[in-house]
Design goal:
Blueprint: H1 2-21, H2 25-68, H3 75-108, H4 117-143, H5 150-182
Length: 190
């Protein structure tokens, strides 16, 4: 509505202006068309300027949003990532210690009646599961920078941490049982 009023005013003023300076009807029409085109071009220029300002605002908002959704932007994400890393490292060390203790027990009993076969098979199964957990953790760490956002990374890492804690509990139980069977060879246990 506002644009039409402006166009009508421009048309009327151009007709009046054109008639006062020109004596030909064609001059009046040309002058009014020029005034109308000038007004439309001015309006288009203002719209382009507004559009540029809005695009700049959108870019600023997107940048601030991207800063907020980084994988380490939230302290709880960092804590969960570090806890998972520490848990997996300690599990790796504990698995190697339990394997060493099993070898020591086998050596001390000369491979006879050592009573460790079920613990050894359970430890092998848990070691395979631990390797899968490590692979998943590497995938999460690699993809964390490019996908999902903070909430997705936090959820995926927390689920992996909960599974790792369950496996760690079973490994600690096997370690306790193996050390209980060691007897005198416990002096060499790790």
């Amino acid at each position: 509505m506002k644009t039409t009023k402006i166009l009508i005013m421009l048309l009327i003023s151009s007709i009046c202006f054109g008639q006062s300076h020109s004596e030909s009807i064609a001059d009046v029409m040309v002058a009014s068309q020029k005034m109308m085109l000038y007004g439309l071009l001015k309006r288009e220029k203002n719209l382009l300027r507004e559009q540029q300002n809005l695009i700049e605002k959108i870019k600023k908002e997107e940048k601030s949003y991207q800063d907020k959704i980084g994988p380490l932007s939230n302290i709880s994400n960092t804590i969960v990532f570090l806890t998972l890393e520490k848990t997996l490292r300690s599990m790796k060390k504990k698995i190697s210690n339990v394997e060493t203790n099993i070898r020591i027990r086998k050596f001390a009993t000369f491979g006879l009646r050592h009573g460790l076969s079920r613990y050894e098979s359970e430890l092998k199964r848990l070691k395979k599961y631990f390797n899968k957990l490590e692979e998943e953790q590497q995938v999460i760490n690699t993809v964390a920078l490019a996908s999902g956002g903070a909430g997705y990374n936090y959820t995926a890492t927390l689920k992996l941490l909960l599974r790792a804690i369950k496996v760690r509990g079973k490994i600690l139980e096997i370690d306790k049982n193996v050390k209980a069977l060691m007897g005198a060879s416990r002096l060499f246990a790790k």
